[in-house]
Amino acid sequence: MLGFGSWFGDSSPLIFLAALLVYGLTLCPTVYVGDSGELVAAAHHLGVAHPTGYPLYLLLTKAFASLVPFGSIAWRANLFSAVCAGLSAEILARSVRRLAPSSPAWWIAGLSAVVLGPLWTQATVARVYPLSTVFTALLLYCLVRWWRDGATRWWFWHHGLLGLGLANHTMLIAHLPVFVLVTLAKRPGQWRNVRLVVLSSLCVLPGLSFYSYVPLRAASNPAVEYRVQVREENGSRFESATTLPVLRSYFSRELHHSRRWMESAADYVPIFQHHLKSVAKELSVPGLLLAMLGIFGLTRCRAAALAGACVLLWVANVALLGWHGAWWDIFLYPRYLSAGWMALLFLLGVGMSEFAVLVREKWKLPRAAVLFLLGLPLLWAARNYQFCDRSDHTLAEDYARALLQEIPENGQLFATADSSLYPIWYLQAVEGVRDDLEIVNPLHFSQKLDLVGQVDPALSGQWQGKVPRDFYSCDPRPTTPMPYYPRQQVGLLTRICSPQRALPPLPPLEVPEIFGLEDSSGLDTFSVSMVALIHANLAAAHFARGEEVAARDRLRRVANLDAGRGWGYWAGTELCLRMGQVDLARELLSKAHEFGNPREPATAALGKQVDQLERGLASLERAHLASDLQERLVELKKAARQAKRYFPALEAYAEALLEAGRAREVVALMDEATQRDPGEPRFASLRARAVRAAGQ
Fold first, then answer.
1. How far, in Å, CA of 643 to CA of 610, rounded?
2. 585: nearest Cα among 555, 625, 542, 546
3. Whether 563 contacts 528, CB under 8 Å
4. What does DSSP say about strands 412-414 and 438-440: parallel, antiparallel, or unpaired?
C-alpha cells in the first residue's frame, strides 16, 4: 500500500478538496444558459420551478446562498453545484475503498469522477443534477455497506435517501430495480419480512413530503412561478399548482409527454447505440477495460450482484431517459445520465483496484508503479478542460442584458423561450436589472392585460377600444407573436406596433458584445444554439436597414454552427427567403432538418413551415431568373397564385409590387387573399402597409 490513508487519514476529504480546486478554477461566474436562470431565481425567491419542482434543490440552494457571504446569487448557486459534485466524487471513492481497503485505487477513482466530462459540465453551473449525483453516490454506498455488513439499518438508510433524492429529481427512481436485484441476490428471504418491508418503505415518505412545498408556495403567489397549462375546449390557460387537477398535471409532466421522441420499443435500439458510443468516447479504451476488469473483480469476490446492479443502473437510467425525453434530451444533452455515469465510475474504481492487485502480486512490480493509473484522470482532465471551463462564460447574462437594453423605459417584452426568458428572470427578479419593464410570457398572461389583449383578444376584454403600446419580442421561432401587426427588427428584438400607428424609424444598429459571438469554439450545444439565434436576429436587423452584405455574413455564421435545437436555422431560413438567398437558405434548411425532431408536435409544426419555405424558395428561384422587375412580378404573381394559402410567396409578390410603387394593387391583392383564406391574419399587416404607402 502506498500509504495515502496514513498521509491524509482514513476520513480525510482529499477527493472533495481536489474537486473544489478543479471546479473553482472552472466555475461559471454568472447565470448559465438553459434552466439555470429560472432555478436560481426560484431558489432566491422560494418560488416554483418548472415540473417537477425540485423542492429539495430550491431549499438547499437558498440555504447555501444565504450562508455564503460573497459573490452574486448566481455564482453562489454555481458553487453549490461544485460542492455537490465534489461530495459525489468523495462518497464514490469511499464506496470503492469499502471493497478494496488495501488499494490506493479509490483515490484515483475519485479523481476520475471529478474530471469526467458529463459530470464536470454540470458541476460548475446551477443545475439539479450534481445534487442527484450526491444521492446516487450515497445509495451506492448503502448497497456496498449492506452487502459487506448485512446490517438492516442500511435498508432504512437506502430508502430514506431514495425519498430525499426523489424530492430533487424523479430520475432517481432508476435505483429501485437495482436495490431489488441486490436484495434478491444477497438475502432473498428478507422480502418475506413484511414488517421490515413496510417500515423501510415508510422511510421514503419523509423525503417525498418535500413536494408539499409546491402547492404551499404556489398559493402565496411568489415572484417567480412556473404555472401549469390547463387545456380547455376553447384553448388553454395557465394556473398556479394549487388544486389537485393542476398538481396532477404538474407532477406527471403531462404537457411534456407530447415531446417524447420514442414511439415504440424499437426506438430503444438507436438510443442505446448512441449512449454506448458516448460511454466509449468518454471513458476511452483504458477506462472501458478498467470497468470490465471491475465486473470481473466483483464476480471473483462473489459480489457479481453489485456488478450487475451497476450495469442495471446504467440501463435503467438510459431506459427512463428514452421513455421520457425529447430528441434533444436523449441525443444531445448528457445531463439526465448522472446516475448511470456514477455506476460506471464505480465499476472503473473497482477495476483500478483489481489492476493494482495484478501490479503488486502477480507482476511483482514495485508498489509505486500503481501511480501510473493517475494517467487516466490526468488524460481526462487535459481532454475535457477547455470544454468544461466556464470561468469566463457570460453568454446568458450578456444576451439577457443586451435584450433589456434595447427596450425603452416602462416597455413590454414578450419572451417565450427558455434561452431568453430564464436569464431575464434572473437579472430582473434577483439582480434588479430593468425592473421597470413588464416581462410577459405564456406563464403569466393573466397578469399583463395590455399585451395580452394584443396577443389574444379573447383573453381579455379590458384593452379593447384603447391603442395598446408597442411591445418587443425575443421569440426564437420563425414567426414572432402577432405576425399580422407591423413589425421591425430593431436589433436582437423585434418591435411590434399597433396597426393604428406607423412604424418609427430604425435607430443605428449597435452590435452588443456577447461572449461566444465571435468565437464559439468550446461551447456546449445549448450555448451554440443561443449564439446561432443571436446571429440570425442580427442578420434580420442588418437586412431591415438594407445592409444585405452584413446580413449574409451573419447567416453564413449561422450555417457554420452546429446548433442543437436549430432555432437559428429556422429564423435564418425565413430571412433567406425574404432576401432571395436561395443557396444559403437550402443549406440552413438542411441543418434545420438535421437537428429537428419530427416526432415532437411543436417541432413538427416548424418542420411543416420549413417544407413550406422550400416550396416558396422554388417560387423565388423561378422569379430570380427574370431580368427585370416586370418579368419578376409576373413570375411572383404566378407563384403566389399557385401557392394559394402559402404566405411567404404571396408576401414576396406584394413586396415586389410595393417596390414598383403599385401599392393599390397590393391592397386589392390582400383583399382577394383574405376572402380566399379568411383564417390567415397576416394579410392585414401587408394591407395596412400598402394603405399607408398609397396615402403617401
1. 15
2. 555
3. yes
4. parallel
In terms of phi and psi (left: phi > 0; alpha: psi -120 to 50; beta: otherwise), the region of 296 is: alpha
State the DSSP string of 373-435: GGHHHHHHHHHHHHHH--TT--HHHHHHHHHHHTSPTT-EEE--SHHHHHHHHHHHHTS-TTT
Cell of 449: 392585460
Q: Name the 3-class secondary structure at 239.
A: strand
SS (H, E, C) 109-163: HHHHHHHCHHHHHHHCCCCCHHHHHHHHHHHHHHHHHHHHHCCCHHHHHHHHHHH
What pLDDT digit, counting tens, does each position of 334-344 carry?
A: 788 999 999 99
Integer Cα distance of 257 and 174 in angstroms: 19
Task: Using the Cα atoms of residue 335, residue 339, residue 341 and residue 342 in order, give the sign of their dihedral.
Answer: positive
Helix residue ranges, H only, 446-581: 449-455, 525-544, 548-559, 567-579
* Torsion, Cα of 14, 18, 21, 25 (10° steps): -170
User: How far is Cα of residue 69 from the mean position of the Cα atoms in its chain?
Assistant: 29
Kind of pairing between the strands at 494-496 and 487-489: antiparallel
Q: Are 126 and 42 in contact (CB under 8 A)?
A: no
DSSP H or E segment with residue 488: strand 487-489
Amino acid, res. 198: V
The sheet carrying 494-496 orders its strands as: 438-440, 412-414, 471-473, 494-496, 487-489
pLDDT of residue 501: 66
Q: Which residue has the cell 470490465?
A: 292
| Nine cell digits for residue 482 | 402577432
- Cα-flanking dihedrals φ and ψ of residue 303, to 5°? -125, 40
Residue 245, judged by CB atoms within 10 A of its CB (0-12, 13-18, 19+), counts as exposed
Residue 273: what residue type? Answer: Q
Answer yes or no: are the C-beta atoms of 629 and 660 closer than 8 Å. Answer: yes
Amino acid 107: pLDDT:
85
- How many angstroms separate the Cα of 617 from the Cα of each of 45, 479, 596, 649? 49, 17, 20, 8
Q: Which three cell numbers stand for residue 194?
A: 413484511
Low-confidence ranges of the chain (pLDDT < 70): 1-12, 101-103, 231-236, 257-258, 364-370, 442-470, 475-485, 498-501, 596-650, 659-660, 676-682, 695-696
For the stretch 83-126, pLDDT in tens is 999 999 999 999 998 887 666 778 888 999 999 999 999 999 99
Distance between CA 314 and CA 316 in Å, rounded? Answer: 6
User: Residue 462: its pLDDT value, please?
Assistant: 41
Residue type, 47: G
Q: In the chain, helix, strand, coil percent, each to 5?
A: 65, 5, 30
The C-alpha cell 428584438 sits at 493
CA 138 to chain centre: 26
Going by their DSSP bridges, the two strands 235-239 and 228-232 should be labelled as antiparallel
| Backbone CA torsion sign across 282, 286, 289, 295 | negative
Q: Give pTM, 2 decimals.
A: 0.84
3-state class (DSSP) for residue 496:
strand
- Cβ neighbors of 590 (< 8 A, separation 6 or more) are none
The answer for residues whose C-beta is within 8 angstroms of residue 293's C-beta and 6 or more apart is: 350, 351, 354, 355
User: From the DSSP assignment, how many helices (H) and strands (E) are in the chain?
Assistant: 32, 7
End-to-end CA distance of the chain: 91
pLDDT of residue 479: 46
Residue 446 is predicted with a pLDDT of 47
Of 615, 635, 616, the closest CA to residue 625 belongs to 635
The residue with cell 448528457 is: 334
Closest C-alpha among 392, 344, 371 to residue 116: 344
